[in-house]
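Risk register update: the risk of archive-format incompatibility is retired. Evidence:
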Amino acid sequence: MGSKFDYVPIQLTKTFREAQADEKFQSWLKMQEAVMGIEFPIDDLPEIRDSMFTEESLTAVEAKLIELYPDERAAYATEDDIHRTMRYVYYIGETFRRAFEGTWVAVPPQDPKNDEKGLTPAIDVPFRETFIQPTLLIRFAVNRRTGEEITPVYGHMERAYNKWQDAGRPERTYRGTLREND
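Archived output:
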């Protein structure tokens, strides 16, 4: 019987590397970047215009998501809802990316044959093997409705980031012990 660490870390797979060049994903990133300067701070959440991409703004973001959507299904119910929700996905991810030296990545589905959703936008940080997935943070926020789902994750990441910096910014190590042959 194998170890619980007998897996190939997703970042080290050919599928992951290929997903980063996906044209739809790259176009989505460019579109969202443009929207952040215009639509988001004016139409979506003007109250954070002067504190964009800060930890403090995430509290207002989560409150607005709870106000907008009674649950996750509602967040993706119509084309307008999808576009608005994806702006929030980008905003949350970009806030984490800027704070913790992250990179936007496209995470491929675990089983592409049975997953219609396709690639998931996420933030890869240099001090963890796992990703920050803004879509999951939105799911937790609108389904749990506590108002305290996003900022605690930010705080956890901030502590991990500071620990990594204090250790001299060591190269990331992967717990998964297997490697793909490609």
